[in-house]
Write a structure and sequence with these properties.
The protein has 312 residues and is α/β, with parallel strands linked by helices. The protein has 10 helices and 8 strands.
């Protein structure tokens, strides 16, 4: 049997300019290098969809002197008034509070003193607080009637005020309605009543009012951008970001998304461009005073106009 001759050793370049040969990597080194390369690669995320921030309008119903205004004041962290002042007038008194991640507008009104059909106003609310005085049986009856008139399709809660006074309501009826007892005078049970409202609205988590307003601002901008013609939106994006006029629509969208660190998103062109524009606050009046063209950083494929950016 003839043996196959061994291959000749490869020639080694021993010139002074020859680079040192790379040492062989074992499996652990190769895995570490792969992880390092993956970590160094830029991570682009899909541009998030624009959604309106959660907001609800809640009607505060109940008989006169049931403590509706006092309850709203407690929820709004306002001082409690010791003297009774009836809520009268042709327009409802609206108080906005933050409840979890949502803004709640409490509509406190003298519903009994209006001639118009209140059902039209109730239709514009998402839930109702049925306030009644635990020291007045008629007040509870009025709250129950208001709940029936308001309807069962929207969430409601019963809140019994004057919890520091003697109970004069049907205890069985209170248990059936799951009423929350509180005292606006002492503040006892006020937070529990607010938690009950949060539960029936299905709200979880917390957010600041500033974050809520920022989300609303972007949603409003997004809806305004959607009403623009495609050409007008393209011009606005190009002018505000200082992009070259020669960019095609697809390139404009890609550039706007890259400036924010987002990848291409599925959906219509005008919708994606409106998202990118809203994320940049491109309709903000304060942008008129911005002269720093280094605010946005893009890759070499994004061409800027020379000189000062033009704003509409």
């Amino acid at each position: 049997m003839h043996k196959r001759p061994a291959p000749a050793p490869a020639a080694v370049d021993r010139s002074p300019d020859a680079a040192e040969p790379l040492p062989a990597m074992d499996g652990a080194d190769a895995a570490a290098l792969a992880r390092a390369r993956r970590g160094a690669a830029p991570k682009l995320v899909t541009v998030p969809p624009c959604v309106p921030p959660p907001a609800y309008r809640v009607a505060v119903l109940g008989a006169a002197e049931a403590g509706k205004t006092a309850l709203v004041a407690r929820w709004a962290d306002k001082t409690h008034r010791t003297t009774y002042e009836p809520t009268l007038g042709a327009a409802p008194r609206e108080t906005a509070i933050m409840l979890g991640p949502a803004q709640i507008t409490l509509v406190d009104w003298s519903w009994d003193h209006v001639e118009a059909d209140v059902s039209n106003y109730w239709a514009k609310t998402d839930a109702a607080v049925l306030a009644f005085s635990r020291a007045d049986a008629k007040s509870l009856a009025k709250a129950v009637v208001s709940a029936v008139e308001y309807g069962a399709t929207r969430p409601t809660i019963f809140v019994g005020t004057h919890g520091d006074k003697k109970l004069r309501c049907d205890a069985d009826l209170l248990a059936k309605k799951g009423a929350v007892a509180c005292s606006c005078a002492t503040g006892a049970g006020v937070n529990e009543a607010l938690a009950a409202l949060r539960d029936v609205l299905g709200l979880r988590g917390e957010t600041s009012r500033g974050a809520w307003l920022q989300q609303k601002k972007r949603w409003d901008a997004y809806t305004r951008f959607l009403r623009l013609a495609e050409a007008a939106l393209l011009d606005l994006v190009k002018q505000r970001l200082g992009l070259d006029d020669g960019l095609e629509p697809e390139a404009t969208l890609a550039a706007a998304l890259k400036l924010r660190g987002y990848a291409r998103a599925a959906g219509s062109f005008i919708d994606n461009l409106a998202r990118a524009a809203a994320l940049h606050d491109l309709d903000d009046a304060e942008a008129d005073d911005e002269d720093d063209v280094t605010t946005f950083v893009a890759d070499a494929s994004v061409v800027r106009k020379p000189g000062k950016r033009i704003v509409p």
